[in-house]
């Protein structure tokens, strides 16, 4: 029983303290608002501010007409912007499609070039192996009839011992021309000398 009475008394005291604090804040807030309004009601500033004109039916109609014109202008500009945006979207889609087609065509071209390079390399390898497997005298007779640059291309790809046996059978002047071409093939490759 004592406990319940003590709790009620304590609750009442806390409530009074809370009410006192709220009232004090309210008075301080009223004083603060009064001070701010004193600061803002400067007669010099008030005299410089334009006075509001009362709205008449004529001025209200004119204001509504002006607002309606501005709204029409804004709506027209908005429509134009939307049309331009749609046009840009269509152009962007076409460019994207063309870029995709260009990428596909580029890849197809790369594949074709790679296939052609591989086929040409395979043909050269097959022909070189064929000349290597021929009798050296017969190969020499063929290489002697070819342009020196052409025959040098094949001889440069052959195994050294096979190329040497063919060189033995070639006319010395033709062999010299082929040797000069083979020796000069990499003459234009940059070299790095140690200092």
Key terms:
about 200 residues; mainly alpha
Tell me what you see in this structure:
With 195 residues, the chain is mostly helical. Among the domains are: 64-133; 134-185, no CATH class. It contains 7 helices and no strands. It has helices spanning 2-40, 43-48, 57-133, 136-145, 148-157, 160-167, 172-184. Helix 4 crosses helix 6 (160-167) and helix 5 (148-157) crosses helix 7 (172-184). The longest helix has 77 residues, at 57-133. The radius of gyration is 51 Å and the shape is elongated. The model has no long low-confidence stretch (mean pLDDT 79).
Low-pLDDT runs:
none
Helices and strands, in order, run as: HHHHHHH
The SS-based structural class is: mainly alpha
The helix count comes to 7
End-to-end Cα distance = 109 Å
How much of the sequence lies in strands comes to under 5%
The shape is: elongated
Mean pLDDT: 79
Using only C-alpha atoms, the radius of gyration works out to 51 Å
Determine the fraction of residues in helical runs and give it as a percent range.
over 70%
How would you characterize the largest beta sheet? none
How many strands? 0
